[in-house]
Amino acid sequence: MNAHQYGRLRARWRRATRLLAAAAAMVTGTAALTTALAVGPASAAVSPVEGGTLAAPSVTAVTAGLAHTCATTADTALWCWGANYAGQLGDGTTANRTTPARVGTATGWAGVDAGASHTCAVRTDRTLWCWGGNNRGQLGDGTTTSRSAPVRVGTATTWARVSAGYEHTCAVRTDGTLWCWGFNRTSQLGVGTSPWTATSPLQVGTATTWAAVTTGFAHTCAVRTDGTLWCWGYSSDGQLGLGTLGSQTTPAQVGTATGWSGVTAGYAHTCAVRSGTLWCWGDNGYGQLGVGSGYQTAPVQVDATSTWRGVGGSSDTTCAVRTDGSLWCFGKNTTGQVGDGTTTHRSTPTRVGSATTWTDSLAVTEHGCAARTDGSLWCWGDNSGGQLGDGTTTGRSAPAVVTLA
């Protein structure tokens, strides 16, 4: 893809973001379900980060799409809320939800990940289900038909974890194989330049040592069981970490280091934890690499410490947790998604409040959400589609707890 083509792709993404936000704002919330979660904004009398009460049941994982949020709880139920124009909430409708709504009545949900307008989740029986927008086959059900309720991806019962990107999806099976499907315009599926679109899962190579995968806008990265890191797709700003710009049609190893334990792909940047150190590369227009200005085509260490435990970020903002349980964010902050109470972009890690009980379950796009060790869930940033779950469409620049009724 040449610079002109990529410019059109970037413009399309930015335009889509504006249109989706506008659509989210136009759709009114439906009546609250009797089983819905009740969410209260932070009290003005207490710190929005330190206040709040324990949520029950406890939140075990959270994911943030472009304008929607989903979370699993300790009883293995699945909840989603926010923009729903493509059915990405999985509740059988296309109506926005400003408070969390249960996805069906069944339990048994083990993990979930939200893309721009679609969502995928793995059940405890190791089946895989997707729903929402499907114009590029990102649901993996063999069609390009959008779905407002979960549809099963094939018949396999060996899915371990899934990552939903902008218009493509990848997942790892229990046998260590890696599979991708959806849009492949920039070779983000890792199977070469063809097909242009895959409506069903395609195996990426023949390796059986894949441990985890993350999907960005036009690139994908994954970690193997030996701790090596691999990336592929488009590298407009160095987001593959290979030291060059341009496309990579199949997985390529990022350097020679091992010890990579976590990786997250943003819009055009990537960050990962390696043996307690934090590294980022790619686009840095908002400071999302945490190392000042200028894009980087190879991993650069964010700071000199070795106390980083986990990292998340799917747009132009990055959040990471230290071993002491503190939460730090940096990058784009137009809608308060850094969570520091401002809308000032941050080019170095900025601490979010003073709490030391944040878990590795965190996600940030135009809004952010994270779970604490007490099982409570906190969200902040853009709220145009009701993705903060507080019953409003008013954004906020600092975390507020999502409490259960």
From TrEMBL:
What residue stretch is flagged as signal peptide?
A: 1-44
Superkingdom, natural source: Bacteria
| Gene3D superfamilies given in the database record | Regulator of chromosome condensation 1/beta-lactamase-inhibitor protein II
Under the heading SUPFAM superfamilies, the entry gives: RCC1/BLIP-II
Which key words are in the record? Answer: Signal
Keyword Signal on entry: yes
Annotated Gene Ontology MF terms?
guanyl-nucleotide exchange factor activity
What would be one Gene Ontology cellular-component term for the protein? cytoplasm
The UniProt entry, under InterPro entries, shows: Ran_GTPase-activating (IPR051553), RCC1/BLIP-II (IPR009091), Reg_chr_condens (IPR000408)
Pfam families, alphabetized: RCC1 (PF00415), RCC1_2 (PF13540)
Descriptive protein name: Chromosome condensation regulator RCC1
Q: Which organism is it from?
A: Micromonospora sp. CCTCC AA 2012012
